[in-house]
Amino acid sequence: MNEIRAIDAAQMKQDPGNFKVGDTVKVHFKIVEGKNERIQVYEGLVIAIKNAQVGKTFTVRKNSYGVGVERIFPLHSPRIAKVEVMRPGRVRRAKLYYIRGKIGKSAKIKELIVKKSAKKAASAPVAAPAAADSGTAN
Prior knowledge:
About 15% of the residues lie in helices and about 35% in strands. It is of the alpha+beta class. The chain has one domain (about 1-110): SH3 type barrels. Strand 3 and strand 4 form a beta hairpin. The longest helix is centred in the N-terminal third of the chain and has 10 residues, at about 1-10. The chain is globular and about 50 Å long.
């Protein structure tokens, strides 16, 4: 059983991306055509994230020429170059399957508004507090 866990751990990505259901994302996916490799960008709404560990997948839905198209991507696949969050969404559901029945403006997800101070705190590296080391203990 430990061999299986070791293989799973070796195949998992260290930083698979920081996105959630409701976000509009761009998935940079490597396509192999014969001997050539190229990156195809697929932009859409994340409507579901399933499973855990190595088998984790996420479903992205977009409208292409008036037709809804969904694609399921394995999160830890070596073919996924990166996942960019274009627009964070504010949702109250884990699965957004109801979007399939919506058309036009009703299919939109509200944007999650993040304060500037929260963005700075999330992007800034965490430094060890120097004041605690100087120690003015009583």
